[in-house]
């Protein structure tokens, strides 16, 4: 019984959530239980349901009585406290089964987790099947089931894996529930019977399932009945969509990540079956016989997997099913059973003559010529060879294997349809070491390259392995090869590609190259008609290298040799390089097929130009032009090869032929074309390019927008293109973002004006497109460090003024948005909430909160949780909380607006700092309300601040 003082305490805390929270957190005595029950603290509480703050956003509160109930459960083994088992059990059942007026359960994963924690303190015999049958309610949620799921799998299930038959029945129920699958409801706008709209999920996170069944499958297989296996089989069957479903990977392969429900259930079923097979052969044989009759190949595959794991006990059964398999079903399905058969056959030792004959006949009968569409004899031989390889530990089959391998020349084995994904350093190994390559003369090496062939389809030395190591050697010792490249004039594309790639990497590693010898080799190599007629392809080259590979790497070499002002090849090679590039372009322009390919529809023209042959060669042409022009300005003399003399005509030819890559580089390097190469010509091109030719225009604009520097004169020339771009939907989304960024940059320079209705910045605002407005705000916010960081003393006055103007322009933008879009609006659409959330980040540019910007901040505050902007907003509010005398009042009111729709808990340092400041500044009412709301919603990190500023209960 409670005394008078204790009863008065309960009266004082009634309906005062903060005090109630504090009470239940500290109390553990059983003496309070009956009075608390009498006062209705343990009945279903609708306030503990998920609270929808606005459409689609929920808070999951914690029922404050739960810590107390858990502490009571920890005392039930004390003599005299047994009655609380029934009391707690009734609470758990009543709360779990409770439904609101709409027929919905409470659906609070915090509550369900506590119930499991409470039950963990019960003796097993006090946890009835009625309690176990509540688990589906706890796991079937609109929200995360991670908390109850982890408790049930990691702790609750193992609790019942004892030798007690009653416990095992409960464990079987738990296994059934935690391995359950669900199909989330389809949206109302979609057809309910559309299978493709349904995503099958497990009720419990796969991580927890993998962990518990990895640890306890042996106990489950040994102690549980076949019911567990039958239930898992039914679930697997529901997941299989086709006959071959689930058979593509080997059951011997352990996946690193179990993402798909079928993978998870397979993981579980395998382990339990293996454990069952060791402990109960009769039950296992019964299961395997059923599996072998299943329509889905998954189950016969599983049967073979179980047999292969314990062949000593199931050898006789294997021979029986093989003999009874009159249709040769098992050996005919190697694409589904390959690895499982391999494990069995490799371990079939001490065969009798009769068994050898059975296997040979089955193998011979498992495939016919007509089963293969191409190279029928070869593929039939390979099919048999796979079986004989698995049986080659037997001399009889070793002989058959060797005979077939001598014919096929392949090393092949039984394997799953999809093998384990492994990271490899290359395609095959090299027949030559680095040391051997360096010892050989270039002539000897060239001859070896021309005659070597891949000898082992799967593992042996390969031409790709040879090519890879050749590239590495050349990178390390380029001079050996460049000094005598003539032996490689007839060498295959793949090897020459890697030779040039190695040379390119050597240059990047600051090695000295003889560019003259290199360019002469390139000139001769591409002069041959055999080169242009694809005569240098290398047999067995998995990469299928062709002439375009060579042309592309030539472009890359020229680019690397010209791009760096401090390190480029000599001017004496300009004519030779121009000759090579012109020859390549002339040949490519004559080839209509490749020309059409270059004009194919593209999404990202920058990426395409960087990787296409035309792109690499046209950029090389530009880089050569750039290097020549820089050199001319340096020596104040024209070169025999230059933009004006011959390169301009060639570039115009590319533009006339609408080679999209030439437009990409024109746009990308437009500033250089304009300021360095040819101002008048550049202006003409800008005026000629029309959006009517959409692909050409977009290629040009993607290139231009990719540049980080904006010349104001060019910006004005490009105004019509910017206007089009504002309305245009680019295939590559970053270009749309770059349009906005360019215009914002010019706005911050004071050139674009917010009140100029004909200006580009104002056109963006008047269009009021969600993604564009968010990009404006986001880009302004990204300038925060640049605009707000301390300025060096020597630049202080000028830079401070400039940064101050930028800050004012950003605030002017915020003011315009508020006045023109939201000042008079009461009902806000989802789009508006996204924008207001983004606008909150501009708080970083405020130097103080005043009456005007307080209205802006108050408008954004309820929506800062949209797009996860709360941490930034809280940080900026914390910085402003004491900047002026009214700051505390404003910040307190703004914070209460935040709490209308969300309960941010990061960064707690900022939240605590704000609340402490509110108390210190005399705004106790706001501070109290903030603490109360956090406490009501289950957050305790403000309690010490609250208690410090109030008398204790």
Structure description:
The protein is an all-alpha fold and 953 residues long. Among the domains are: 1-136, no CATH class; 325-420, no CATH class; 423-545, no CATH class; 728-827; 849-953. Helices cover 62% and strands 1% of the residues. Strands 1-2 form a two-stranded antiparallel sheet. The chain is flat and about 110 Å long. The chain starts with a helix and ends in a 5-residue tail after the last helix. The relative contact order is 0.04. Residues 186-197 and 421-426 have low confidence and may be disordered.
Form type: flat
Q: What is the total tally of β strands?
A: 4
- Give the count of helical stretches: 52
Q: What is the residue-mean pLDDT, rounded to a whole number?
A: 92
Distance between the termini: 21 Å
* Rg calc: 38 Å
Structural class: mainly alpha
List the helices and strands and how they pair.
Elements: H1 4-13, H2 17-26, H3 33-38, E1 51-54, E2 57-59, H4 66-73, H5 83-97, H6 109-119, H7 129-132, H8 135-139, H9 146-159, H10 165-178, E3 181-182, E4 201-202, H11 206-223, H12 227-239, H13 261-279, H14 281-292, H15 298-309, H16 311-324, H17 329-332, H18 334-346, H19 353-365, H20 376-390, H21 395-408, H22 434-439, H23 442-451, H24 463-476, H25 478-482, H26 493-508, H27 515-527, H28 529-532, H29 547-562, H30 574-590, H31 592-598, H32 605-611, H33 613-635, H34 643-656, H35 660-668, H36 670-677, H37 679-688, H38 694-705, H39 712-717, H40 719-727, H41 733-748, H42 760-767, H43 770-782, H44 784-788, H45 796-822, H46 830-839, H47 851-860, H48 870-880, H49 887-898, H50 908-920, H51 924-936, H52 943-948
Antiparallel strand pairs: 1-2, 3-4
Helix pairs in contact: 4-6, 5-6, 6-9, 9-10, 9-11, 11-13, 12-13, 13-14, 13-15, 14-15, 15-16, 15-18, 20-21, 24-26, 26-29, 27-30, 29-33, 30-33, 32-33, 32-35, 33-35, 35-38, 36-37, 41-43, 43-46, 47-49, 48-50, 49-50, 49-51, 50-51
């Amino acid at each position: 019984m409670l005394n008078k003082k204790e009863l008065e305490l309960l009266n004082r805390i009634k309906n005062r959530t903060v005090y109630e929270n504090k009470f239940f957190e500290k109390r553990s005595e059983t003496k309070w239980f009956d009075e608390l029950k009498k006062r209705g603290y343990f009945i279903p509480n609708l306030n503990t349901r998920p609270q929808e703050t606005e459409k689609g956003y929920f808070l999951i509160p914690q029922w404050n009585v739960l810590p107390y109930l858990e502490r009571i459960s920890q005392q039930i083994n004390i003599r005299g406290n047994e009655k609380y088992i029934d009391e707690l059990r009734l609470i758990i059942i009543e709360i779990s089964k409770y439904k609101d007026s709409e027929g919905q359960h409470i659906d609070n994963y915090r509550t369900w987790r506590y119930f499991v924690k409470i039950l963990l303190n019960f003796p097993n015999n006090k946890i009835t099947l009625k309690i176990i049958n509540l688990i589906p309610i706890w796991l079937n949620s609109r929200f995360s089931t991670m908390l109850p799921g982890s408790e049930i799998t990691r702790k609750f299930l193992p609790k019942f894996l004892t030798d007690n038959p009653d416990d095992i029945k409960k464990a079987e129920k738990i296994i059934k529930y935690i391995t359950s699958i669900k199909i989330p409801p389809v949206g109302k706008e979609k057809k309910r019977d559309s299978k493709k709209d349904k995503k099958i999920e497990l009720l419990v996170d796969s991580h927890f399932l993998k962990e518990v069944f990895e640890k306890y499958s042996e106990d489950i297989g040994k102690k549980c009945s076949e019911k567990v296996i039958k239930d898992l089989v039914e679930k697997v069957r529901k997941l299989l969509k086709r006959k071959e479903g689930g058979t593509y990977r080997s059951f011997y392969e352990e996946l690193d990540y179990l993402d798909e429900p079928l993978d998870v259930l397979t993981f579980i079923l395998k382990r339990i079956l293996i454990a069952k097979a060791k402990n109960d052969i009769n039950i296992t044989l019964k299961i395997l016989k059923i599996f072998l009759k299943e329509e889905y190949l998954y189950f016969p595959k599983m049967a073979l997997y179980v047999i292969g794991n314990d062949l000593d006990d199931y050898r006789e059964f294997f021979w029986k099913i093989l003999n009874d398999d009159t249709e040769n079903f098992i050996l005919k399905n190697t694409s589904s059973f390959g690895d499982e058969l391999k494990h069995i056959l490799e371990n079939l030792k001490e065969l009798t003559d009769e068994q050898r004959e059975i296997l040979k006949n089955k193998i011979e009968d498992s495939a016919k010529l007509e089963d293969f569409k191409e190279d029928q004899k070869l593929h039939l031989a390979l099919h048999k060879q796979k079986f004989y390889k698995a049986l080659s530990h037997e001399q009889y089959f070793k002989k058959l294997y060797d005979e077939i391998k001598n014919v096929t020349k392949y090393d092949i084995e039984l394997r799953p349809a999809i093998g384990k994904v492994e990271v490899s350093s290359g395609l095959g190994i090299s027949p030559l070491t680095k040391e051997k390559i360096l010892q050989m003369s270039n002539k000897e090496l060239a001859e070896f390259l021309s005659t070597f062939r891949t000898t082992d389809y799967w593992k042996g030395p390969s031409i790709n392995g040879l090519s890879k190591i050749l590239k590495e050697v050349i990178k390390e010792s380029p001079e050996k090869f460049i000094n005598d490249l003539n032996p490689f004039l007839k060498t295959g594309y793949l090897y020459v590609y890697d030779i040039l790639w190695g040379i390119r990497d050597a240059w990047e590693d600051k090695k000295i190259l003889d560019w003259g010898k290199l360019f002469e080799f390139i000139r001769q190599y591409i002069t041959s008609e055999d080169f242009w007629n694809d005569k240098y392809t290398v047999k067995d080259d998995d990469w299928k290298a062709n002439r375009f590979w060579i042309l592309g790497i030539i472009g890359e070499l020229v680019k690397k040799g010209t791009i760096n002002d401090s390190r480029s090849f000599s001017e004496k090679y300009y004519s030779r390089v121009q000759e090579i590039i012109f020859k390549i372009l002339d040949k490519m322009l004559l080839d209509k097929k490749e020309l059409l390919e270059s004009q194919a529809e593209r999404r990202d023209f920058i990426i395409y130009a960087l990787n296409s042959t035309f792109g690499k060669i046209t950029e090389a042409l530009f880089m050569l032009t750039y290097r020549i022009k820089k050199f001319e300005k340096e020596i104040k003399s024209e070169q025999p090869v230059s933009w004006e003399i011959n390169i301009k005509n060639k570039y115009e030819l590319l533009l006339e032929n609408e080679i999209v890559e030439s437009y990409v580089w024109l746009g990308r390097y437009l500033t250089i074309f304009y300021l360095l190469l040819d101002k008048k010509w550049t202006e003409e091109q800008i005026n000629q390019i029309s959006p009517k030719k959409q692909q050409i225009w977009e290629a040009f604009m993607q290139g231009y927008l990719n540049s980080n520097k904006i010349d104001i004169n060019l910006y004005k020339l490009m105004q019509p293109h910017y206007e089009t771009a504002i309305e245009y939907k680019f295939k590559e989304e970053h270009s749309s973002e770059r349009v906005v960024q360019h215009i914002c940059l010019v706005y911050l320079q004071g050139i674009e004006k917010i009140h100029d209705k004909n200006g580009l910045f104002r056109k963006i605002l008047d269009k009021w497109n969600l993604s564009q407005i968010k990009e404006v705000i986001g880009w302004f916010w990204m300038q925060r460090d640049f605009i707000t960081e301390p300025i060096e003393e020597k630049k202080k006055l000028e830079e401070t003024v400039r940064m101050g103007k930028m800050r004012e322009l950003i605030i002017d933008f915020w003011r315009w948005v508020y006045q023109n879009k939201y000042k008079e609006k009461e009902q806000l659409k989802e789009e508006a909430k996204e924008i207001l959330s983004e606008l909150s980040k501009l708080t970083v540019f405020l130097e103080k909160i005043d009456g005007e910007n307080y209205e802006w901040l108050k408008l954004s505050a309820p929506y800062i949780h949209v797009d996860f902007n709360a941490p930034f907003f809280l940080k900026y509010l914390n910085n402003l909380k004491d900047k002026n005398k009214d700051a505390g009042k404003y910040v307190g009111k703004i914070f209460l607006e935040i709490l209308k729709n969300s309960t941010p808990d990061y960064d707690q340092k900022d939240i605590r700092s704000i609340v402490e400041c509110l108390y210190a500044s005399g705004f106790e009412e706001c501070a109290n309300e903030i603490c109360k709301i956090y406490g009501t919603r289950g957050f305790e990190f403000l309690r010490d601040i609250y208690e410090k500023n109030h008398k204790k209960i």
